[in-house]
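Kindly inspect the following:
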Amino acid sequence: MRGTAVEEFKAWCAEHGRVDRPCTTATYTEYGTYLMSQANRKDGTRTMKAATIRAYMSHIRMWQPPGKCPDRTMFNNIIKGWTEKNPRANSRKAWHHLTGVPDPCPIGR
C-alpha cells in the first residue's frame, strides 16, 4: 500500500503544481481532503474508508525527509469531522462468517 499511496500522491502533486517532497502541511491536508472527497463519489469509482485514508496519509508522511514531516493536526481534525458526518466511512464488514470463527455476538444479526 505504501508504494501506491506515495505514487498517487506524487501524481496528484504534479497535476496540481505542488511539491511532493518535502510537502507542506497545506499540501498534505489538501490531499487528505481530496481523498475524502473521492470516497464520497456516488458513481463508485473510488471508495475509501477512513482507516484506508489514514493509512495513505501515514505512508505519505513517513515518506517525507527526516525532520520535514508536515503537521497532521489539521488533517486529523478534518477527517474526524468527516467520519462523524459519514457513518459509512467507519463501517466494517463482518468477516466471521467467512473464517469459520463463531460470531461473538449473534443476537440481532
Q: What stands out?
A: The mean pLDDT is 83.
